């Protein structure tokens, strides 16, 4: 659980830093009319910011997937235990089976009259 919290914190930090890098990149490109002067801002701010945002989202999804796996393992263990209990109950239960034969039903009803 501690590792999942660390992943969430790191993901949050990366998303915030990525957003800041994008904003700084945009503020640098906003005042430039020449495309040649805009390219360094696009490369460093735009691509770097998107990369950091992507890494943050990826780490968030990794943390979420870890929590899902943990919960799935817990549920599988619970179901396995319940299946064992049901088997034990069925082994010790006395169950009458009723034949699903229409002739047996007809003979019972005609004999009752």
Which terms would index this structure?
mainly alpha
Number of domains: 1
Helicity range: over 70%
Largest sheet properties? none
Tell me the span between the first and last alpha carbons.
Answer: 71 Å
Instruction: Determine the mean pLDDT.
Output: 83
Describe the structure.
The protein is mostly helical and 113 residues long. The protein has one domain (2-93). It contains three helices and no strands. The termini are far apart.
Topology (SSEs and partners):
Blueprint: H1 2-30, H2 35-92, H3 102-111
Helix pairs in contact: 1-2
Concise synopsis of the structure shown:
This protein has 113 residues and is mainly α. It has three helices and no strands.
